[in-house]
Design brief:
The protein has 335 residues and is of the alpha/beta class. 41% of the residues lie in helices and 16% in strands. It has a 7-stranded parallel beta sheet with strand order 3-2-1-4-5-7-10, with helices on both faces. α2 links the parallel β2 and β3. The radius of gyration is 20 Å and the shape is globular.
Length: 335
Amino acid sequence: MNKTHVLLTGASGTVGFEALKQLLEKGIYQVTVFDKKSKATIEKFAPFKDQITIIYGDISNPLNLESILNIDAVIHLAAIIPPLADEMPELAHKVNTVGTQNLIAQLEKESPNAFFMYSSSISVYGDRIENPFIHVGDPLIPSEGDAYAETKIAAEKALLNSQLNWTIFRLAAIMGNHKMSKLMFHQPLNTALEIATPRDTARAFVNGIERENTLSKQIFNLGGGETCRISYEHFLERSFAIFGLGELDFPKHAFADKNFHCGYYADGDALEKIVNFREDTLEDYFSMEAEKVSSLKKAAACIFKKPIKWYLLKQSEPYDAYKAQDKKQMQHYFN
């Protein structure tokens, strides 16, 4: 029997690397990886170089995609994500939207029967503070200035209008290997947060290959479900405790009140019933994070927690807007 030929883009990313490992563990797939060439990607793929075909290139350049041939299924994860997507919206559009359009065109030409599995985002629904329970059919109203969400909506439209067979998974907050950045202050503390781990997320895509007929031409919300729900404030409190940073004692106006995204997926069980991907809970996530923090690092963070939190606060754009009394920015971040 011929192996199903799977194309995986963005395999060096957090979810992508999990997907790569799971595809290879199945032992039934011929895997081609498309990614940007760098020292990091070369090192990451080195252990698998005898098991996979690697194509290095820039997805925004159609010429770099011409060697993608005879594909049966695609897991398309390659993307520029926040905060870089916010800082460089033109690059995000070039990679996330144009890159997806280029890949679709190449597959329509050379692999017209390919099943295209696309990774979209909860950001397409915009600010859901007032109405946190999200359904697939809800209007797509990205938050003001959310370039990343705009690129995802445009890429979804390109896929819906294509000649390929497809499915779209709109990913909740995928938590794993995250670094604290200025984005932490963009999210209101009273945000309803549903997470999924990278390995569960990857499992949904990998298991989905064998469920093409059921997933075909449908959009799904992908989240961890009820056991993966928490408020953003409590999520940060537990995270700070794990890292030895003490209380979440930032001043008022450090966090925005609006114009972010996230929520609870009211219809998330629909995808779980088809691809059976959920194995991790919120407690599993916090346990995995705690295992990454050595007692030495935690002790050091505890000693230096005040300067660390001072440094983090310096990254807060809402707080900067408040201190400067910048009315335009304050209107963006606060009610």
